# Entry
Amino acid sequence: MSKAVVLLSGGLDSATALALARRAGHRCHALSFRYGQRHTAELQAAERVARALDVAEHRVFPLDLAAFGGSALTDPDIAVPDRPTAGIPVTYVPARNTIFLSVALGWAEVLGARDIYIGVNAVDYSGYPDCRPEFIAAFERMANLATRAGVEGEPFRLQAPLIHLSKAEIVRTGVGLGIDYGLTVSCYAADAQGRACGRCDACRLRATGFAQAGVVDPTRYQTRV
# Structure
């Protein structure tokens, strides 16, 4: 069975990407990050999802991006907005997906895995530059230039199976795969109990996705969207 490294944040999208990697027949190694995020409930969610989807291994990698700040997700002095904003929002974490994928690439090379899965989405998303197809294609090219495996003819494949799906399509896909989305946390400002704020962009996108999919939203909200 081929191996795959799957980035697992604990949210709806990454859980769906993990389920799709399993359906593709991979033995999945899940990778989460303790990167100084204010919403650490997502790491507890990642552990629940990893157990439920029976991964081969789940590692939580310590990485202090809060040392740099620059994002509402890592800097307590920057408020998480409760309404959509123009341009790239303050919840963007500088270079986060580039850094996460670089760590995943190193682990994949050690494991002998050639597939790396990430649950980015370019349709229903918040305008992050590192969720675009152009970024995914560019990182895959870099990965195969920068590694011994790539140079020796064992190229990596960066899999972003959700990138062209709407949030509703992602929800329907996951339900079809048997995912319990009640295990996941997508909120940018979840409390210590994992309850979603019901106001941030991530909450709005998630709630709209369930509504448009015609699926009951299992999310526990502090304030109903």
Q: What stands out?
A: The longest helix spans residues 96-111.
